[in-house]
Amino acid sequence: MRIRCPYCGERDNGEFSYRGDAAPRIAGGDAATPEALHDAVYLRDNPAGPIDELWFHAAGCRAWLVVTRDTRTHAIASVAPARAVARARQTGDAP
């Protein structure tokens, strides 16, 4: 699988570390209940289809990226800096 880093260009996935689902998981932030924290840590969906994932470019620019990948085919639809995605979620804009 090849991942197109926005800073380094297309690279082999061996240069990256997978860190999991990029969707916000804990509702309530610091005020989250123990049940919400338990659910965020131990209960995960396993969707068949497109999902936003966190990847770290460990052997390159060391940037955190949000990769939109289809779990059935491994086809990558988009790659964006995680910081831009987080800001877009806060403001409601598209990354």
From TrEMBL:
GO terms for molecular function: sarcosine oxidase activity. GO terms for biological process: tetrahydrofolate metabolic process. Signal peptide: none annotated. InterPro entries: SoxD, SoxD_sf. It holds the Pfam family SoxD. It comes from the Bacteria. This is Sarcosine oxidase subunit delta. It comes from Methylobacterium oryzihabitans.
